[in-house]
Specification:
This protein is α/β, with parallel strands linked by helices. The chain has 14 helices and eleven strands. The structure holds iron/sulfur cluster (2 copies).
Amino acid sequence: MTAPEPPLALLAEITHRCPQQCPYCSNPLELNRASDELDTETWLRVLAEAADMGVLQVHFSGGEPTVRKDLEQLVRRAAEVGLYANLITAGVLLDEARITALTEAGLEHVQLSFDDSEERGADRIGNLAGGHRKKIEVARLVRKAGLPLTLNFVMHRHNLHHLEDMIDLAVELDAHRVEVAHVQYYGWALMNRAALMPTRQQLDDAAAIVERARERLKGVLVFDHVIPDYYARRPKACMGGWGRRFVNISPSGKVLPCHAAETITGLDFASVRERSLKDIWESSEAFQRFRGTGWMPEPCRSCDQREIDWGGCRCQAFALTGNAANTDPACEFSAHHAELFALAEAESGAAPPPFIYRRIGAAVQGGDGARRDDETVESRAGARARRPVALP
Ligand code: SF4
Ligand code: SF4
């Protein structure tokens, strides 16, 4: 067996802690606590291992990566071993001193998330008062520090009507790039799917807005537009194929082919606490399971797209059909595709339920602001997960 090519990029999810509580968060429902997190020494070793095996970039993410006080140390190590260091952040914990320290440590790029163009809507989505204003301040500080800035817009039925204004905000904040990413339904987002699902019309309008803006802002702003799977005809090449281009390490040290892979039950993910990153990437069972095309069932097995989209997303196939080895239902050739489309139309056509906010094992609040102390995340998540998540 020949060893696989090394991954291009490492997504280092250094914590699940986060001051925001976004209902669209793709983190797993069972969030790692601070006591589960890898320590600094282990991360420093893993960053060197990543560079040694040929990884080119590291994306520090979470949760909110700036929660960790050792982030500067990790960025410095990344720079020392020649990894391009990117920070994916909600921004709400940053200030000028921290941005300066991170820049001096070798940070090369910042991706900052925004939830709306207006404070009220944005703070309701992130469930953090003052969050939007803080992000605007941080965006300016990032540019003042001379770092290139990408704005991440996660789009859904509660903010799509403000997409044009959000693009204007990106121009005003001197961003270089915008990711217009419709919610991907994993983790907390899957549980909140009915609350977030846009209509087909909203998506068509968004696509037209992006195309117009792309034309109008040529040379000013670069656009990435991630189309949502539920209304697609073909799946995305999720992560460029399982175990091909990207590797993800969870806060507790599990090595995953993508950030949602732990949602697939029955797969055992090895940890950098026990094995080297290279060993896990090349030979662990979970990475071998869906790498390449040998695992594919029909219709993927004999499809001419199989080395282009790699059969789509394993996590989505598992979440929607109960079997990670099935063809992604986003594909029009999947036996489940029509049901997926019907489900998206039904959910987007109904009144949205309140948000179930993302929190580590505590009481949740609904999007109407009413605290529901009698409902735990587990109880509501469990009830919802048993009902509408899987396709009938
Ligand atoms: S999506 Fe929201 S809640 Fe999840 S990690 Fe990012 S900022 Fe935090
Ligand atoms: S059948 Fe499989 S390989 Fe072909 S387009 Fe659909 S998901 Fe891709």
